[in-house]
């Protein structure tokens, strides 16, 4: 059985997503120029959906332990991320100058799916004979 403390990074990631989505449109637009200094091609924060949900899926995979290295775990990971994405979009409907956007949810799912598939693809690296990190069952 997976230890519950392994989900703390995922909860922290969810908290960071919630905090960021609680910022009004004006607050986000005021920090956009700072990010544009580092990433000049960034015109808005839409690409951050990929990054945030990629990170969320990786932290969920860590919490899931061995199950993350299975197709069932991969699908469950993406489903949890999408469910959180739905609640995040709903939450944004209450934030000034923000609104829910189905495309944001698509971007959330794509980031989560990329991370979950990456975890699934690296499973054979941990499934080598004698590895203490992972044993397939």
Automatic annotation (TrEMBL):
Kindly list the residue ranges recorded as spanning the membrane.
Answer: 48-64, 69-86, 106-127
- InterPro entries, alphabetized: VanZ-like
Q: What keywords would UniProt list here?
A: Membrane, Transmembrane, Transmembrane helix
Domain VanZ-like, first and last residues per copy: 10-122
Query: Which domain of life does the protein's organism represent?
Result: Bacteria
As recorded in UniProt, coiled-coil segments are: none
Protein name per its UniProtKB record: VanZ-like domain-containing protein
Q: Which organism is it from?
A: Cohnella terricola
